[in-house]
Amino acid sequence: MRMKIYFPAFLLGTCGILPLSPAYSAGFALAEQGVSGMGNAYAGGAAYAEDASTIFFNPAGMGEFTQERFDIAGHYLRTSFKFTNTGSTGAAVLGRPALTGRDSDGGQPAPVPNIYYLTPLSDFLVFGFGMFTPFGLNTLYDDDWVGRYHAVQTQLTTVNLNPSLAVKLTDKLSVGVGANFQYASVLLSSAIDFGALCFSLLDAPSCRLMNILPQQTDGFVAMTADTADSIGFGWNWGVLFKPAPHTRIGAAYRSQIKHRFKGNAEFTVPGAAAFVTNSGYFTDGEVSSELTVPPIFSLSAYHGTDARFGILADLTWTGWSTFDELRIKYASGQPDSVTTEGWRNSYRASLGFNYRVSELLLLRTGAAYDKSPIPDADHRTPRGPDNDRTWLTLGSRFSVTPGVDIDLGYAHLIIRPGEINNTLESSAPTMQATLHGKYDMNVDILSAQLNWRFE
What we know:
The protein is mainly beta. 4% of the residues lie in helices and 53% in strands. The protein has helices at residues 54-57, 194-201, 204-209, and strands at residues 2-5, 68-85, 110-120, 125-132, 136-140, 153-168, 173-193, 218-226, 232-244, 247-254, 257-268, 285-293, 296-304, 309-318, 325-330, 337-340, 346-358, 361-370, 389-401, 404-426, 434-454.
């Protein structure tokens, strides 16, 4: 993440209001929107229509159901983002001193819930409703780690309400549409090197006389914001085609959604550096920003070779180029903080297999390759040390009663080690610290889902 910090200092852009999640799906999207698909690495997501989670993956799949359904799922994500410092430095104008602080692991556990309900309204019309978390992140580093000026804590939560309708046009073709109402909230924090700032605002002897020294006079900033005053709105559609009794082809699209954040920034300024607040900067106040979450398009297929065996495939494209710039505005008149991102569109390709052991037990497995949207080490940040990942998954479905099933899933994500060479861009030259090192990352996901069918 590249950041411009307008005079006189380190603005909240360093908090990067977006959660650049390396944890779940590439970017900051969460693929965990149902457990039946988990075991197949979400291969066939837009085609299989196995349960009510098709509301998320392809609303047209609701046309396959003739019974009322209620499905509830939960995912537990354990993440590890271990940073190893390999020569992080302060600004060149200070002689590039080494950044002090320890290495740290920003990984934090996170729950992800999904709830889905559908009911046939007629022989050809089905209504569905989903509530899920399509984007999110939870990272926390030590307060004194070497990258504290870049990030300490990042939390993002989204809640998406998705009423949907499916129309079964023929026995072979269904279409579906949905509306999306999305709420988002964020908490962001980082340290501020007031010692380095002093060397830009005053001469070095004066700062030494006041004992305001780089990396020895740290402050802190935390921001909380949400979209309660401006819920994001979007839409989605899907098509499901069955060319043969055991073959399905599905396509689904989710639109981008624009969020307008409003919140508050709280600054902690050391007593020795209190003079920097005389201009009105580094004082508590309101902030605002905008975020557009990307559009997503999926093309999926399912084919059952016999009564026991099935193969699934999927290609999902995500339009991450919408995330080109982050701009944070301050009600106090403090100049905007601008973060240049330059993300690229990305894709996930997956392949899965099902094997029915008996009428009571179905086994699943799958693998996927998930391409990161981050273009290079200069744009990788500790808030989102994302990189290309490989999914390896297992899953099963147990029939408990004729109307109740339980899905279980497990995924291990192998994330390519990521180099980081991120410099804070600032009009205060002494603030231009560079975080240089390597991230070793992995994710484990455990999931369970309870499915009810009603006559």
